[in-house]
Amino acid sequence: MARDCKRMLSELSDYIDDELAEELCVELEKHLTDCPNCRVMLDSLTKTVRVYCSDKEERLPDALSAKLRAAVAKKWDDKDSKSRKSHE
Amino acid sequence: MSKETEQALIDSARDGDREAFWKLVEDAAPMALRLLTRLTGNKEQAEDLLSQTALKAVDGFEKFRGESRFSTWMMSIALNLARNEIRQSKSRKEINWDDVIPAGAHNHGSESADLVEWRDPQEVFEQKELRTLLDNALEELPLKYKTVFLLRDAEGFSTKETAKALGLSETAVKSRAVRARLALRKSLAPHFGRKEREAHGS
Ligand SMILES: [Zn+2]
């Protein structure tokens, strides 16, 4: 990779996050127009992040959820009765 | 869960409402389980760590001051527990910049193998095959980069919440995130690059 491109690498990451300062954005976008290597970097980095954030299970399996709920409830009640005792 | 809903549940739980506390745990649990599964690579161990996490959350609830989201706080408990279990792995290794940027070429125009245009990973591979590839690439990341990547990128935490969950500065989070992304990109490039796919098809 050319030295110019190396310098762009950490900026590419900020660019993906939409956290890059405006003037750097302009500079980067200009560089991207002229540099196929950096276009590939941007595209493949974006895909890397995207492919890991897809496919999210939003609920626990029912059995695990029930088990967890019972354990939390028991712990909560134990703690509750202990703290009540210590206040008596 | 919206911040308002979360705050209302936290207030109720502080007043002793067990059900409200459970709702908070239930909301954060799937994320904690994903994180623990990816960190340990073992479903049973991850489930066990999840219940330890939830019990620790009950125990330490007074110490939760609301400076971060409840889920962030639960993730930091989960991560601490996981770290103890997988301490012996190569957690101290660093990612060197020169190892993760495309090689070959200080001269312009020369194309190195990992600078090939990518296909859409989801189109190239079956779900299960893709999962294995992603897990294997992740497996190679040193722990401190892996945790940042999982929170920041896989779970979509902000830089700030990632920093809170891991007890790091935001600068450190950013620096590790860049290296983690570049390292994963490099591991995945041979699979997702156009050339590789054409080779498969022929
Ligand atoms: Zn470039």
What attributes does this structure have?
heterodimer; A: 88 residues; mainly alpha; 4 helices; 81% helix; elongated; B: 202 residues; Rna Polymerase Sigma Factor, Chain: A; Arc Repressor Mutant, subunit A; 2 domains; 11 helices; 69% helix; 0% strand; binds zinc ion
Bound molecules: zinc ion
Order of helices and strands of chain A: HHHH
Low-confidence stretches of chain A: none
Largest interface: A-B, 42 and 53 residues
Count of discrete alpha- or pi-helical segments spanning 4 or more residues of chain B: 11
**Architecture of the largest domain in chain B, according to CATH?**
Orthogonal Bundle
Mean of all residue-level pLDDT scores of chain B? 87
- Give the structural class of chain A: mainly alpha
Distance between the termini of chain A: 72 Å
Write down how many β-strands of chain B occur, each being a DSSP E stretch of 2 or more residues: 0
| Mean pLDDT over the residues of chain A | 88
The whole-angstrom Rg of chain A is: 25 Å
Mind describing the biggest β-sheet of chain A? none
Structure, described:
The complex is a heterodimer of chains A (88) and B (202). Chain A is mainly α. In chain A, 81% of the residues lie in helices and 0% in strands. Chain A has 2 domains: 1-56, no CATH class; 58-88. The termini of chain A are far apart. The mean pLDDT of chain A is 88. Chain B is 69% helix and 0% strand. Chain B is built from 11 helices and no strands. In chain B, helix 7 crosses helix 10. The radius of gyration of chain B is 20 Å and the shape is elongated. Chain B starts with a helix and ends with a helix. The model of chain B is unreliable at 104-110 (pLDDT under 50). The interface between A and B is large, with 42 and 53 residues.
